[in-house]
Amino acid sequence: MLLALDAMGGDHGPLETCSGAIMACEMFPDLEVALVGDTAAIEPLLKSVSSVARSRIHMVHAEEMISMDEPPAAAMRHKRHSSLRIAMQMIRSGEAAGCVSAGSTGAIVAGGVLVVGRIPGIDRPGLGVPLPAVDRISMLIDVGATVRCKPVNLYQFALMGDVYMRKVLGVQSPSIGLLSNGQEEIKGDELIIEARDLFRKSSLNFIGNVEGGGIPFGVADVVVCEGLTGNILLKFIEGTGEAIYSLIREEFNRRLLPKVGMVFMLPMLKDIWGRFNYENLGGTPLLGVNGAVIKAHGRSRAKAVCSALRVARDFVSKNGVSSIAEELSEGGTME
Amino acid sequence: MLLALDAMGGDHGPLETCSGAIMACEMFPDLEVALVGDTAAIEPLLKSVSSVARSRIHMVHAEEMISMDEPPAAAMRHKRHSSLRIAMQMIRSGEAAGCVSAGSTGAIVAGGVLVVGRIPGIDRPGLGVPLPAVDRISMLIDVGATVRCKPVNLYQFALMGDVYMRKVLGVQSPSIGLLSNGQEEIKGDELIIEARDLFRKSSLNFIGNVEGGGIPFGVADVVVCEGLTGNILLKFIEGTGEAIYSLIREEFNRRLLPKVGMVFMLPMLKDIWGRFNYENLGGTPLLGVNGAVIKAHGRSRAKAVCSALRVARDFVSKNGVSSIAEELSEGGTME
Questions:
Q1: Residues β-bridged to residue B117
Q2: Minimal Cα distance from A73: which residue of B?
Q3: Looking at the DSSP assignment, which residues form a beta bridge with residue A3?
Q4: Distance from CA of B100 to the nearest CA of A (A)
C-alpha cells in the first residue's frame, strides 16, 4: 500500500515528517510512503534509513508549499505544484491509496473537496477527531471542516462517524450523541431539533442529545456537532492540557516537596498522560471525501506522523471510504 | 442591602441554601437575606443561627418550586407562587436589591426576562461565567441564556462583559475577544464577521478573534460566544474536572506509590484546585436584565451559595445594572 505524505506540512518541516515515514515503514512491512516535497531538503534525511525500509520510501518533487496563514481555498486552487496538492492528486490518479498532511486544516479540507472530491451523496465533509474519554475513544465530528451546518450535514457526520467506528475501529453498534445545551428534548435550536428528527428516522444507534460534560466520560462513541463548536472545543482541550502543564511546572519550581512527591507519582502520571497524548492517537480522518485523507496535528513530531500514517493504513485496509459510499447508497442519504 | 435567595433551588435544597445564607450574613454585616421557599422546611434550619446574623435573615413563604426538568418558560409563567418567581418579583417591586438561585438555568433566564425585565435597549440577556485562567479570571459570555445569536446580541454581550469587568471586578480597559475557529480575519461565519464589524466600530478594547486554546491562558478578559457554544464549553470544563478526578482516584486505588507521593504534593494540588474550584468563584451574573440576578451552580453547597450571595452583593453595591444601562444610553446600542 502506497501512502502519499505531505513532507512539507506542519510546524517542524521535512525532518520530522520524514522521520515519521521511516518509522512507519519500519513498523509496517506492507507500507510504502511517497514523500512529497522539496527533494533537495528530503534526500539528505534518508541517508540513515535501514535497508529494510529504504526500498519502500519514495520521493516526489513539489516546488511549492502551502503555509498555515494562506487563505486555504485560494492556495489550493493556485498553488498547483504545492506538496499538499500533489499528494492529493496522487489519490485522485490512483497512484496513492491515501494521504497524510500536518499542514493547514483549511487547505486539507479545501483540497479534499477540490482535488480528491466528495463521495457521491455527501454534501459536506467532516473532520472526525478521536478523543480519549474515561473508558473509550469517542469520535468528535466535525472539528472544523464545515463551520456552519444544515441538519443533513450533521446527519451525514453521524453516518460517517458510525461507519468509521464500526469498520475501522471495530466498535459494535456505536452510540451516537448530538451535542446540545441540554439532554432534554426542548434543548437546542432549530438545527439540532431538525437534525434529531433525521437521526431518529435512521437506523443509527442514536441516544439523543448529549451535553459537553458527558464528553470526557465517553457519553457516546460518536459525538456530532457543527464545525465551529467542535473546533473551539478541540482547541480548548489542547490549550487546557498545555495550561495545566505550565501551572504544574510553575508550582513545581517554587516548591521542594512536590519534587519529592513526583518521584512516587511518576508511573501513575505517565499512564494518565499516555491515554491523553495526541502523539499516540494519531491522525484525524477527513470523512466524506473520496479517498483516505488524514490530517496530523500541526505540531506533530516523528512519532505523531507515524501514528497518522498508521491511521491512514487502517482506514485504507478496512475500506473506510467505500464503506461510507455503500452506506449512503443503501438509503443513508436524506435529501 | 436585602438579597432574595431562592431557598428551594439547586440539587441540595434548603439545607445548603439556608446554610449559605447564614454564612454570608455572618461575613457581611450590611447584608440581609430573604429566604424564599417553604417556611415549614426553612424554619427549623434557622435554629442554630448566631444572634448577630439572625435579625438579618427573613423568611418569605412560597408554595411551589420549579424543578430542573420543567419547560422553563412555561413553569415561570404558570407557577406564580414558585420560590424563584417570588424572589424575582421582589426585585421588580423594589423590595430586594438582587436575587440568587441555584435552580434551573432556563427558568432563571426566562424569569429574568419575564419578571425582572430587560434593561431598555438590550435585545437578549447573557450569562457571563467567570472562568479561572492561568493569570486572570476571564468572563465567558454567553453560556446558555441565548442559544443562537444575532450579531447585535454578541455585541451587547461584549459591552455588558466590559462593564462588569470594569465596574464590578475592577479590571482596567478589559480586553474583549470574539471566540472563533481561528484568529485570522477569514475565519468564522457571517455571524462572527458581522459581529466583528460592530466590535470594531465601538470603543471596546477589542483584540479580534480568539481561539478555544487561548481561554485557559486568559487570552482576553471577556470572551464572547453564542450561548450554545458557551454552554457546551462550560459543561465540558466541569465534566473534565470530574473525569480527571475520577481517573486519578481510580489509579490511586490501584497503586501504593502515588499515595506516598500525594502526601508531598498535597499543598501544591490544593493551591491549584483552589484556583479552579467553582465554590470560590461564586455565581454567574445574568447580564442584561433590570436587576442583579445571580445564578449559582446547581450542585452548590453552602459555601458556593455564600459565594454567589457575595457576587450579588458586589454587583449591587457597584451599581452593575445602572452602569450597563448608562453605557447603552451613551450610544452603546447599534440598532
A1: none
A2: B186
A3: A33, A98
A4: 22
Round the CA-based radius of gyration of chain B to a whole number and report it: 20
- Residue B236 sits at the chain A interface (C-beta within 8 Å): yes
Contact residues on chain A for B67, CB-CB shorter than 8 A: none
Q: Using CA atoms, how far apart are residues B41 and A233, in angstroms rounded to an integer? A: 42
Same domain, B86 and B140: no
Q: What is the DSSP letter of B331?
A: I
- Note down pLDDT in tens along chain A; length 335 residues: 999 999 999 999 899 999 999 999 999 999 999 999 999 999 999 988 888 899 999 999 999 999 888 889 999 999 999 999 999 999 999 999 999 999 999 999 999 999 999 999 999 999 999 998 888 899 999 999 999 999 999 999 999 999 999 999 999 999 999 999 988 887 888 999 999 999 999 999 999 999 999 999 999 999 999 999 999 999 998 888 788 777 777 766 766 666 666 666 666 666 666 665 656 667 999 999 999 999 999 989 999 999 999 999 999 999 999 999 998 887 654 44
Can you give the residue range of the structural domain that contains A196? 126-254
**Terminal C-alpha separation, chain B:** 35
Enumerate the residues of chain B whose CB falls inside 8 A of the CB of residue A71.
186
d(CA A221, CA A135): 10
**Do A135 and A244 belong to one domain?**
yes
How far is residue B289's CA from residue B321's CA, in Å, rounded to a whole number?
8
B161 in contact with A at a CB cutoff of 8 Å?
A: no
The ipTM (two decimal places) reads 0.88
- Looking at the structure, tell me whether residues B99 and B6 fall in a common domain: yes
Contacts of A228 in chain B (CB under 8 A): 180-181, 188-189, 229
A270 part of a folded domain: no
Chain A residues touching B236 at Cβ < 8 A: 212-213, 215-216, 233, 236
Residues 6+ apart with CB under 8 A from B329: B121
| C-alpha–C-alpha distance, residues A104 and A123, integer Å | 22
Residue B284 Cα, gap to closest chain A Cα (Å): 17
- Is residue B184 less than 8 Å (CB to CB) from chain A? yes
Looking at the fold, whether A223 and A284 belong to one and the same domain comes out as no
Residue of B nearest to A265 (CA): B258
A 270-309: CB under 8 A from B: 271-272
> Shortest CB distance from B261 goes to which of A184, A251, A263?
A263
Give pTM, 2 decimals. 0.91
Question: Would B265 be classed as within a structural domain?
Answer: no
Indicate the SS3 state at residue B13.
Answer: helix
- B106 contact residues in A (CB cutoff 8 A): 182
